[in-house]
């Protein structure tokens, strides 16, 4: 049964002109409106073509009304969707009329919030709706879809079950404070706690890749002034975003662009050239390059292939490893037979390209895809990738569990141990949005005889 709320309305499609726009209404008033606009007894999930007439009887547009009864709607309430022509004036007129008829404008996220409050989805699924809307790559989309279909809840279930068993075992002894926990039960509880810790540690480890999926893989382009870094950025994103000039020191500040390469979202960062004798402004730019490189997942070190190998700042070289860096020998179009062979790519992490005419930039993209692939966990099919909120809850739960283990080892009163475990359970419950007390009681009564 849905909780009772007022009736909200909002434009569900982006504002602006387009072929169509959708106005969505959720709440008890949606049924009343469906009866007015669609039919006396609106047929569920049936598109009905009709005129939208405002309260004064003026026709605003010809639209499609679709009514969803509370049992079959996304919010768990009566929902009416009005698909009209995508003219901002029309949608505004319809929304104003709906307000006249007793609706209120929805707050951001309020439809999804109602889905959660009405038990349609848990909190992690609500977050997945946002992830789905903002997914920028094949991988991010797949992960968001898994989470929307309850992927995280599925991973959390065995962990929470173990913890509920631990709580149930401990709470059975609370009524008998004079009795110590028997060694056998202590070991059992320790086993539960350790399995919960293991499971939560594994989930915590997925946060980093989760961040990469949501924000993109930070790929920083560095190199000497004039090596062609900005030309490479422009080539990869397919437009003239960065200023390119023959003058060394053109790029003074870093600039960032997101692109899709293969299944990955890449955050490409162009940086100031690493001049070993910088002027004061260039120096500020180089300091920023050092900052950028510290948080880089992938580094593209651009080198002018027609010149001698550059001398690089030690603050940069300390972050360059064979596994995170590709040396991009640029300006292949200028190479002649007399070019020193030392600069021709003969190492695994080197690629020879021309940012100017695009030669072999595809090879570079392949390398980026491979590198980005190597950042993902081994099995991705059913993997979930937690966000910062989940990570915070898991870390807090772990702290409580570790305190619980200490209490168990020091024979502390059972109430205190139970309190730690309950706190841990509440933190884990924050991930989905609730822990049902009934769940604990069910387990408690099923496996123990309280009166024993
Ligand atoms: N022939 C040729 N010229 C290139 C190539 N890539 C870049 N250039 C030229 O090299 C000069 C410098 O290019 P930029 O892309 O501005 O170099 P940068 O590394 O960003 O330089 P700074 O911002 O000064 O550090 C420009 O004149 C480019 O047209 C290339 O592949 N071939
Ligand atoms: Mg530049």
Mind explaining what this structure looks like?
It is a single chain. The protein is an alpha/beta fold and 452 residues long. It folds into 3 domains: 8-119, Gyrase A, domain 2; 128-206 and 385-447, Up-down Bundle (Four Helix Bundle (Hemerythrin (Met), subunit A)), CATH 1.20.120; 218-374, P-loop containing nucleotide triphosphate hydrolases (Rossmann fold), CATH 3.40.50. Helix content is 44%, strand content 17%. It has 15 helices and 12 strands. It has a 6-stranded mixed sheet with strand order 3-4-5-2-1-6. Strands 8-9-7-10-11-12 form a 6-stranded mixed sheet, with helices on both faces. Strand 3 and strand 4 form a beta hairpin. The longest helix has 22 residues, at 183-204. The two termini are 39 Å apart. Residues 444-452 have low confidence and may be disordered. Residues 223, 225-231, 244-246, 248-251, 273, 330-331, 333-334, 354-356 line the site of guanosine-5'-triphosphate (GTP).
Summarize the structure.
The chain has helices at 28-37, 88-100, 110-117, 123-134, 138-148, 151-171, 183-204, 207-215, 229-237, 280-294, 314-317, 361-374, 388-409, 414-432, 437-447; strands at 8-11, 18-26, 48-53, 59-68, 79-86, 104-105, 217-223, 255-261, 264-270, 298-304, 325-330, 350-352. Strand 10, helix 11 and strand 11 form a beta-alpha-beta unit. The protein folds into three domains: 8-119, Gyrase A, domain 2; 128-206 and 385-447, tRNA modification GTPase MnmE domain 2 (Four Helix Bundle (Hemerythrin (Met), subunit A), Up-down Bundle); 218-374, 3-Layer(aba) Sandwich (Rossmann fold).
């Amino acid at each position: 049964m849905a909780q009772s709320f007022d009736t909200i309305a909002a434009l569900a499609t982006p504002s602006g002109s387009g072929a169509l726009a959708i106005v969505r209404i959720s709440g008890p008033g949606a049924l009343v409106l469906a009866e007015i606009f669609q039919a006396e007894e609106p047929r569920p999930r049936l598109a009905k073509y009709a005129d939208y007439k405002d309260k004064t009887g003026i026709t605003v547009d010809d639209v499609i009304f679709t009514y969803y009864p509370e049992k079959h709607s996304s919010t768990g309430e009566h929902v009416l969707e009005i698909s009209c022509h995508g003219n901002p004036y029309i949608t505004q007129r319809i929304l104003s009329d709906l307000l006249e008829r007793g609706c209120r404008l929805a707050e951001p996220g309020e439809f999804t919030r109602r889905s959660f409050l009405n038990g349609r989805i848990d909190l992690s699924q609500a977050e997945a709706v946002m992830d789905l809307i903002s997914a920028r790559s094949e991988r991010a989309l797949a992960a968001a879809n898994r989470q929307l279909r309850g992927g995280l809840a599925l991973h959390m279930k065995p962990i929470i079950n173990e913890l509920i068993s631990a709580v149930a075992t401990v709470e059975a002894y609370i009524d008998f404070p004079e009795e110590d926990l028997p060694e056998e039960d202590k070991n059992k509880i320790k086993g539960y706690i350790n399995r919960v810790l293991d499971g939560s540690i594994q989930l915590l480890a997925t946060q980093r890749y989760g961040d990469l999926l949501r924000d993109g893989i930070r790929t920083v382009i560095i190199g000497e002034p004039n090596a062609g870094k900005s030309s490479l950025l422009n080539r990869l994103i397919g437009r003239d975003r960065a200023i390119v000039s023959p003058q060394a020191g053109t790029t003074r500040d870093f600039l960032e662009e997101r692109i899709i390469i293969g299944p990955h979202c890449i955050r490409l960062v162009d940086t100031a050239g690493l001049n070993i004798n910088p002027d004061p402004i260039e120096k500020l730019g180089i300091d920023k390059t050092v900052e950028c490189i510290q948080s880089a997942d992938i580094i593209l070190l651009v080198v002018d292939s027609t010149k001698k190998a550059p001398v690089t700042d030690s603050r940069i070289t300390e972050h360059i490893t064979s596994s995170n860096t590709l040396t991009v020998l640029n300006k292949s179009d200028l190479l002649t037979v007399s070019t020193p062979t030392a600069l021709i790519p003969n190492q695994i992490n080197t690629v020879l390209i021309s940012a100017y005419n695009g030669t072999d930039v595809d090879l570079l993209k392949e390398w980026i895809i491979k590198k980005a692939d190597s950042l993902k966990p081994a099995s991705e099919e059913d993997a979930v990738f937690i966000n910062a909120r989940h990570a915070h809850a898991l870390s807090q739960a772990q702290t409580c569990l570790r305190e619980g283990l200490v209490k168990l080892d020091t024979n502390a009163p059972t109430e205190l141990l139970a309190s730690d475990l309950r706190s841990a359970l509440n933190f884990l419950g924050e991930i989905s949005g609730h822990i049902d007390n009934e769940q604990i009681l069910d387990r408690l009564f099923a496996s123990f005889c309280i009166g024993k």
